[in-house]
Amino acid sequence: MTSNYAESFNKRIKDARTFPICSMVECIRFTLQEWFFKRREKSGNAKTKLSPKFDDDLRLQVQKGRHLQYSGVTQHEFLVLDGDEDGTVNMLTKECTCGLFQLLGLPCMHATCVATKRNIDVYSLCHPFYRVESWRAAYMDAVYPCGPEHEWNAPEELLNMEVKVPVAKNPAGRPKKKSKGGRRKIKRLPSQGEVIVVQRKCSICGGRGHNRKSCTFRQ
């Protein structure tokens, strides 16, 4: 929710982006194969109800809400006093006025305070996305090697496809004029406080930085 995974992955394959297209695709496939295998093993060995990172976050919220005081408002709503902004929790809709409960899908310290003191399982308040079963399901499929090209089972229309040269498109706007004498010289006005130094050109040898009086071409 806070990281740009596309940029992170681009950084991971930064060197591979200079390879030929087939080598680059193979590098991406191997990277995903390695990642899926490691995460599949890690999730399979997890002993917690939530994935380890979010299980630690939940325990931290439980620790924060352990010493807070609460009072009932309705059957499902409770006011929790934390000495700052406080929070009104709705245990039925899983919402809190602090915003963290409904934003993250994990109970905040106000919700854990009510849950622990009313013998409610805090894990039942967590979104199913954070459970270990969802973590394992995300990496359940394997990424297999492609194998030799002659063993590929490709559709007939792909095998007979002819890849043509891309159609060139003219850029928008007025086309630039090409100068006959090489690169076109651009004259510009000097900026404020800028001094443009123009070197002298010798009328005898054509060189710059001196004039005909100091020219050594004929000496």
SSE blueprint:
Elements: H1 5-12, H2 21-44, H3 52-65, E1 69-72, E2 77-81, E3 87-90, E4 95-96, H4 100-104, H5 109-117, H6 132-138, H7 156-159
What is the number of strand segments?
A: 4
Work out the helix count.
7
Largest sheet: 4 strands, antiparallel
Give the helices and strands as they follow along the chain. Answer: HHHEEEEHHHH
In the sheet with the most strands, the strands line up as 1-2-3-4
Rough shape? flat
What structural class do helix, strand and pairing data support?
A: alpha+beta
Mean residue pLDDT: 85
Low-confidence stretches: none
End-to-end distance, in Å? 77 Å
Percent helix among the residues? 25-40%
Strand percent estimate: 5-15%
Question: How large is the radius of gyration?
Answer: 35 Å
Structural overview:
With 219 residues, this protein is of the alpha+beta class. Among the domains are: 30 residues, no CATH class; 84 residues, no CATH class. Helices cover 32% and strands 7% of the residues. It is built from seven helices and four strands; from the N terminus they run αααββββαααα. A four-stranded antiparallel sheet has the order 1-2-3-4. It starts with a helix and ends in a 60-residue tail after the last helix.
Which short descriptors sum up this protein?
219 residues, alpha+beta, 4-stranded antiparallel beta sheet, 7 helices, 4 strands
Task: Report a brief summary of the structure.
The protein is 32% helix and 7% strand. With 219 residues, it is of the alpha+beta class.
